[in-house]
Amino acid sequence: MASGDSFYVTTPIFYVNDVPHIGHAYAEVAADVLARWHRQRGTDTWFLTGTDEHGQKIMRSAAANGVTPKEWADKLVEESWKPLLDTLNLSNDDFIRTTEERHEVRVQKFLSKLDDAGFIYEDEFEALYCVGCEEFKPESEIVPGEGANEGQLVCAIHSKPMELLSERNYFFRLSDFQQPLLDYYEANPDFIQPASARNEVVSFVKSGLHDLSISRTSFDWGIKVPWDDAHVVYVWFDALLNYITAIGYGDDDGEFERRWPAQHVVGKDILRFHAVIWPAMLMAAQIAPPKRVFATGWLLVGGEKMSKSKLTGIPPQQITDEFGADAFRYYFMRAIHFGQDGSFSWEDLSARYHAELANGFGNLASRVLAMVRKYFDAELPGGIERHQDDERILELARTAIANSDAAIDRFAIDQAIAEVWKLVDGLNLYITEQQPWVLAKQEADRGRLAAVLDTAVRGLGALAVLLHPVIPVATEKLWAAIGAEGELAQQRIADALEWRSTGRVGELDALFPRVESAETTDA
Ligand code: ME8
């Protein structure tokens, strides 16, 4: 998909029943890298994240902690979820909480619109519910329990007993949208990505859709159904709407039209909500479906999906405290093929940190700048003449720019970084081959020495621009040290090689100092 006039990217909004772990952080960082990259393309960009605060899951966590659901949500948002934004260096433009008035009134407005259009009806309902998923589960996702749950039916994802619910509910006529959805998938082959996710959704929809229960009466922690306040809106129906309520759905200031449709980054566990229910809701309200729903894989720890309930959750801060936010961002974006499951281990993180960030990138930058200071007193002469070898480096940089930019169009973040890294490796090889320290020995080679170091510094500037969306802190330091003009975040991806120099380089401390990690040495 080519870059359009605007780019609106979202993360899932996270349940505040508990604190964040690195699985949540992964989705946040991915959306952040995409947003930063698009801003550096010059695209009108908006990045939304937030928290999902209604439903039984939150109600029960609050009760277990002896506070009201709102008190619980406020505490978790202020103490854990908002601080995560700083921990990870996120550049979100907005943060929505589903308990905010702006959200609640627009959810009611949307629901009334669907009701007026005849897409809502009332009926008796009985089904098995999983509070962990906040979902009535289809038979195929209910399995016999093991261990303490032997003899009971449990949710295949949460391994917790299902609860039988029997109520009068309002329903959304989801089944009306089977054919319109299939038509939409066909007309928009890139709507659901990756391809494996798309195939799964298409066959699910082909197998038939049931109408969706969208209200509850057995508890009251939720948004009231506007025409019947004995009911609260089903938490998923409420949550999905955040993507439009946050940008002013129903207002006439043009903001909504400017941003919508969005591109959603979601975990594969919640793909169906986003690729089936959500576009159907929008179609019913005569709003365009999202541009793309991209399903990420799961982070696995010791072969299991990381989760709080299974005690495999690692707080992001445990990693950033030791390695820094840049390393966290780089590692997860580089090491995991975006869209597939990936295993986390401290050993792998530490190995990549030292080999790729510290040695590959950081050392390259410090060595080159140290040579400019040593051999040219920090100021490279102008009017240099480049050799074929130098031109090859510039060509490599141009290729890295084009290929990484194309990879980002496909949301192939890991591939985009791999493309940029070809320039890191190419520059390292170039320095090894050109041996500037040997050129420095002969006065006759002075021109050649200047050309090599100038070419290397030019390449470093391109790296700063291209890697800024991924490692914003280290690239800022590099940007200052190479003596570049202007703000780094304002530099365009396409012009990464054409940055303007003041002509003077500065000092550069190690961008990625060695880390003796307690986790890796104890392991
Ligand atoms: O589902 N690996 O919220 P949630 C990778 N509130 N990603 C993971 C992960 C793991 N081990 N664990 C969680 C909800 N995630 C709803 C969403 S949206 C309108 C409502 C990520 O707090 C993944 O992106 O359970 C998943 O979809 C998201 O966290 C949901 O977290």
Question: Would you mind describing this structure in some detail?
Answer:
The chain is of the alpha/beta class. It has a domain at 346-495: Isoleucyl-tRNA Synthetase, Domain 1 (Orthogonal Bundle). It is 48% helix and 16% strand. The chain has helices at 22-41, 56-64, 69-87, 101-116, 178-187, 195-206, 235-240, 242-245, 255-259, 271-284, 316-323, 325-335, 346-376, 388-409, 413-434, 436-439, 446-467, 472-481, 518-522; strands spanning 6-15, 44-52, 94-97, 120-130, 135-136, 142-144, 153-155, 163-172, 192-193, 212-213, 215-216, 224-225, 228-233, 263-267, 292-296, 299-301, 304-305, 342-344. The strands form five sheets. A six-stranded parallel sheet has the order 3-2-1-14-15-9, with helices on both faces. A four-stranded antiparallel sheet has the order 5-4-8-10. A hairpin with a 2-residue loop joins strand 16 (299-301) and strand 17. The protein is elongated, with a radius of gyration of 26 Å. It starts with 5 loop residues before the first strand and ends with a helix. The model has no long low-confidence stretch (mean pLDDT 95). The structure holds ligand ME8.
